[in-house]
Amino acid sequence: MAPSPGPLMTVRTAVILLLAFIIGLLAGGMSYLVDPSVPAAVLVGGGAAGSALLLFHSVIEP
Q1: Closest Cα partner for 24 from 5, 2, 43?
Q2: Which among 3, 55, 2 is positioned nearest to 24, based on CA atoms?
Q3: What angle do CA 30, 18, 58 make, to 5 degrees?
Q4: Are 56 and 13 spatial neighbours (Cβ–Cβ below 8 Å)?
Q5: Burial of 19 per CB tally in 10 Å (0-12, 13-18, 19+)
Q6: pLDDT tens per residue across all 62 residues of the chain
Q7: Cβ pair 62, 9 in contact under 8 A
Q8: pTM for the complete prediction?
């Protein structure tokens, strides 16, 4: 019988993804409040989420 594999993702990965998602949601929401354009808000939120992902990956140590 093969040993059971480890968890799908670590707690660190889950926290980093959650923080990036929240940052992207807030940035997109604020962008939509300034200029009610959904495509622009999605682009702003996606850019902010990607940048936050890189930031939190480098700041939160394994």
Answers
A1: 43
A2: 55
A3: 100
A4: no
A5: middle
A6: 788 888 899 999 999 999 999 999 999 999 999 999 999 999 999 999 999 999 999 999 98
A7: no
A8: 0.87
